[in-house]
Amino acid sequence: MTNQIIINAILKINPTAEVSVSDEDINSIIWENGTTPISKADIEAQFPIVELDMAMQDLRSKRNKLLADTDYLALSDNVISDEMKAYRQALRDITEGLTTKDEVEAIAFPVKPI
Questions:
Q1: Residue 110 lies inside a defined structural domain of this protein
Q2: Distances, alpha carbon 40 to alpha carbons 28, 78, 94, 105, 112, in Å
Q3: Is residue 114 in a domain?
Q4: What is the pLDDT along the chain (114 residues), one digit of tens a residue?
Q5: How many structural domains comprise the chain?
Q6: Residue range of the domain that includes 34
Q7: 3-state SS string over 9-36?
């Protein structure tokens, strides 16, 4: 696990926690400023949720770039093809129903029409 995944898992449980982690090791958590320690099992239970959140964030970032690349076509003074409308809608729908990191990583982006 990376330090960020460990910290994000802790913050899922206690959003005000102040911690540091070194060497990507869950056993190296330093609970700062009186933050109540959380069990390793409780932190580890959050890993799949945090990994999904991070994968979704990356997917949305890529999707948003692809949408931005075609935004000029959707301006009111342009006529947009049905193929381009379908492409843009497929991009907007790409995050629907995804519940695991593996599902997110298996996503194939639609091909931009010419």
A1: no
A2: 11, 56, 34, 27, 45
A3: no
A4: 799 999 999 999 999 999 999 999 999 999 999 999 999 999 999 999 999 999 999 999 999 999 999 998 888 788 899 999 999 999 999 999 999 999 999 999 999 998
A5: 2
A6: 3-45
A7: HHHHHCCCCCEECCCCCHHHCEECCCCC
Q: Look-up: residue for tokens 């991070």?
A: 54
Domain membership of residue 59 (yes or no) is yes
Residue at 38 is within a domain: yes
Look-up: residue for tokens 């802790």?
10
pTM of the model: 0.83
CA angle 54, 49, 41 (to 5 degrees): 125
Q: Contact at 8 Å (CB) between 7 and 38?
A: no
Distance CA 55, CA 34 (A): 32
* Residue 84 CA neighbour count, 13 Å, CB half: 15
